[in-house]
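Exercise: predict the fold of this chain.
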Amino acid sequence: MPPLDPVAQTAVQRALADRRAQRTTQAQAWFRLAACAAPGDTRVVTLVIGGSAQDQARWCLRTACLDPVLTPVLELGGRALAEVGDGGRAISFLRRALVADPQKTRDAAFAMADVLARAGRLSGAYPLAWWAAVNAPGNAAAQVRLAAVAGQIGRKGTAATASLAAARLLPAVTDLSVTAVQSARRAGLRREAWICARRAALVAPQSGDVTYLLTEGGTRPEGMASARVWSRRAVATAPLSAPAWDAVARTLRAEGWFSASLSAARHGLVAVPDDLGCARSMAQAAISEMRFAVTRRVARTARMAHPGDGELAYQLAQAEKANGDLGRGWDLDALRTVGPRFHRTTGLPPRASRKDLPPGHLLVAAEQGIGDELLFLSCLPDLLAECPEPVVEADPRFHSLLSRSFPGLSLIDRQVRVDGEGAIYDYNRVVSDLGLTTHIHAGDLPGRYRRDRDRPTERSGYLLPDPVRVAEWRGRLAELPGSGPLVGLCWRSMLRSGIRSAFYAELPEMLPILRLPGYRFVCLQYDECDAELEALRRDQGIDIWRPRDLDQREDLDGVAALIAALDGAVSTATSVCVLAAAVGCQTIRLAPSLYNITDGRDFFFANMTPTLRRDEPMDVSVAIARAADLLATRVKARK
């Protein structure tokens, strides 16, 4: 290459001296003079490139015209053009850089991935982001870009691996650790998420937000340190961190310590009055303590700062249903579909008007568990009077019961499938096949037909068990020893947790009922309980009969027939309790009434008697003692 023009050479020397002295403006002026003195020399033009993105783009375009294969200029030009919004030429420059030197263009690959991702061209961005990250394993920015692109196209494993790599490279950057833990959890890498969270907590012990990650059940593998330990550490290191206090509140509530949970959430709201997490936790803890006035006050205040939050609306709805305006409670409850509790759906037709329902082509979409489903469908007779031909989505275990009770009713199975994000209710096929035009969720039915607290239903059940099977059960039950009333007994749900345990009993706690003379008891417990029944028989001499040939989890039609053959049932707040009431059996509920709406009798079933008042703290031992007193008046032997 010929020597540099003397004028250009002098200008370059002056410019380099000014650059070393950090006189950027003067240096740029000398560089431009050199470029004017030697307009065709790419060595000079390359030195000129600098300043704003507009200047960089202009000089890179000029240099690329003089020498179209200068890789550094193409890379810099591509980034500059992207920054000024010229995505088309930016991609062209970066692609040329990759073609010119594919082995040394990780920066170009990274920049091009960034440009394509911003343009929404994720399928093209992903291989470039992957190439940049693989060739620069120590570059945190490349790992972050790969994680972002991979996450957007559903590659959870790659996103988690890249996020964790970025967090390892920059452990003091708490935001990276938080993102990495969440990404690892989504990919099912619980142990990796736990390790990342612990490392971040050790590097930044003052960060309550990082320590908060260690309290989440989705992060902690089984057998690791308890959430309570880490949540306490979080508030110790960051006493003004609302997320840390929320972690304590959630942990305590999960263990059944509702009062302590409420206190912890209140501490968080003192630190940050508009914190959403603490407001939710305080309202939830207050509901668990039956302190509905507290829930109402907290939820109303928090909704001023977070008006669109579905969870706050749900909690306020529970408070209004218990001790406030029942109609307003159901109206608020309609917002549950946008809250975090509600399942994902796709393909649903438009929601039906609150005032008028179409005569047909209406889908009653299922939601929640089987106990809730039985409760909601107690309003089905009211719906059929208004809309005679709905299509009802229900658990298939109930289809025979519903078909017998409502001849001609159109039933479909639950339309649930599993995708990469978990369970989703997909209605696309049935909507198309059945010509459905509107929908209403089953949980919306009480809001239409049960709005007046002073008008509880007079109906004692609405389901018709199989009369043949009922007769068979009565024949078998008649063979049991004794002649007193036959009472079904259920003391817990199969799903157990700290929160739920407050509403359930251990079998020995049922002794005040079991020791009543003259009664015969039948086991309606649908999980494994043989060891408990044997211990009761051995230690107390009390025998509870359990039908060995009945699958009480799957054969719900058979369970309904068995219950209908009994004289009564006593149950904690489980699906068995609602099923017993739904088939017309005299039912004593070891809890307040459903939704805490009424005292003395249940709002939805005239044949269900709650044992606790709606504003009374949950105490299963008190409920059992009262049930023992109620049996004599509520349950008589069938003649």
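Check your answer against the key: The chain has a mean pLDDT of 81.
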